[in-house]
DNA sequence: ATTACTAGGGAGCGAGTAT
DNA sequence: TATACTCGCTCCCTAGTAA
């Protein structure tokens, strides 16, 4: 079954109280609650059971169900996403810790081929260096994976005599609710989705008094 | 398209910022965000457009979309439901105003055929009379429609020489976070879904100092 | 480069009905 | 009375590709 449908049915079962105990759930009643036929309710329950999102048992041939741990995780993640959508439309909020990079950010950020485009698209001249952030938990990591697939500003790569500089994509962002900068994704990044690279017109570690391990909040604008 | 799917796609578009302005939405990017193919994203967008949940326009052959007023209502109602599920699992919360009934509640509540069953299933002897509540808005009304379809406690009807008393269904409930009573649904109710009838072991108007027009909060337990 | 049509397959649905 | 199987129909999905 489609994961989108699974989530909505699990929320309905959660609403009925199946998140904390077994509840009596005759399929014809579930059917009314779901807005489907009795047969579909039966099928849905059995599919959720096969996928281990719910447990079920029968008392006098009547169905009792309870959401499993796996199901609860799915519900809670979904509810978190919905709330986040409501509270932060058009933005992705990230939290993570400052870590030291390999120091090569300064070199890249100061290449004239990039700088001119950053100025054009982002409206500022980046401080020569990037702030590396290790995201706090899996929710932010999966959000980062998603963000990275969106297009944002397209900074074109170029080549010099010595080597090739790949494409970079950028999204404007606000760091610690204070400084306007950007998140950048190098086309061939050495980092996985648990890391973010942030640039700004100023030296962020200095301006925000940041040291390795400090928590940082980055709000990425999707349409700015 | 299935209303459950519609809602999830609308939430995604809302998250992308389409709730407050037109956003650039190339179908291949939407596809990645939705987790479907480019072709499906295109189809989904056009179906949402046909159903008037979104507006769309093209700039240089690229799609820009915005959620319509109708779409926003759908999203907001859905988010409200999800939050409610999270905050009140196993309960339906209602708010409404005290209104005067036709006074026939006292007569019904004191029929021995009903009283014995109320005692058995609900654990209290109802005060002879019902508190009539007119629900505050459409959200509560649709929730009441849903609740009424669930089974709850089944109080069987009976007949006397004079007339027939129909079946009644009941759910335990807490009134104004203070008194434990029940919501009852007469099989052949004269009221629509905008009304609730509440009973309790005590005289609610007296115990809670209620007059016509006062706001009342009823928390219905689904599994109690 | 971007949208969206077409065709084929599979998922999801309700009615009828066996158990 | 309850669950859930079968069947036929529709809806939904993707790949290929036209515009």
CATH topology of the largest domain in chain A: Elongation Factor Tu (Ef-tu), domain 3
Q: How many DSSP H or I helices of chain A?
A: 8
Proportion of residues in helical segments of chain A: 25-40%
Globular, elongated, flat, extended or rod-shaped: what is the shape of chain A?
Answer: elongated
CA-based gyration radius of chain A: 24 Å
Identify the CATH homologous superfamily of the largest domain in chain A: Riboflavin kinase-like
Task: Name the chain pair whose interface involves the most residues.
Answer: A-B, 40 and 40 residues
Order of helices and strands of chain A: HEHHEEHEHHEHEEEEEEHE
Task: Describe this protein's structure.
- Two copies of one chain form a homodimer.
- Helices cover 38% and strands 28% of the residues of chain A.
- With 224 residues, chain A is an alpha+beta fold.
- The first copy, chain A, has two domains: 3-75, Arc Repressor Mutant, subunit A; 88-221, Riboflavin kinase-like (Elongation Factor Tu (Ef-tu), domain 3), CATH 2.40.30.30.
- Chain A has a six-stranded antiparallel beta barrel with strand order 4-5-11-10-9-12.
- In chain A, a hairpin with an 8-residue loop joins strand 10 and strand 11 (195-199).
- The model of chain A has no long low-confidence stretch (mean pLDDT 93).
- The interface between A and B is large, with 40 and 40 residues.
- The structure holds a DNA duplex (19 and 19 nucleotides).
């Amino acid at each position: 079954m489609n994961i989108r449908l699974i989530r909505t049915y699990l929320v309905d079962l959660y609403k009925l109280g199946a998140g904390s105990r077994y509840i009596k759930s005759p399929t014809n009643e579930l059917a009314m609650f779901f807005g489907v036929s009795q047969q579909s309710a039966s099928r849905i329950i059995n599919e959720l059971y096969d996928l281990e999102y719910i447990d079920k048992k029968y008392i006098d041939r009547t169905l009792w169900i309870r959401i499993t741990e796996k199901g609860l995780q799915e519900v809670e993640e979904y509810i978190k996403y919905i709330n986040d959508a409501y509270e932060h439309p058009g933005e992705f909020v990230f939290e993570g810790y400052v870590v030291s990079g390999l120091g090569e950010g300064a070199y890249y950020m100061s290449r004239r081929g990039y700088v001119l485009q950053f100025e054009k698209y982002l409206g500022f001249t980046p401080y020569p260096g990037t702030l590396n952030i290790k995201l706090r938990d899996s929710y932010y990591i999966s959000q980062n994976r998603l963000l990275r697939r969106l297009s944002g500003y397209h900074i074109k790569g170029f080549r010099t005599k010595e080597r090739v500089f790949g494409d970079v994509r950028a999204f404007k962002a606000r760091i610690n609710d204070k400084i306007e900068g950007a998140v950048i994704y190098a086309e061939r990044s050495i980092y996985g989705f648990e890391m973010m690279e942030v640039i700004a017109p100023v030296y962020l570690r200095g301006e925000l008094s940041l040291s390795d391990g400090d928590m940082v909040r980055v709000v990425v604008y999707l349409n700015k």
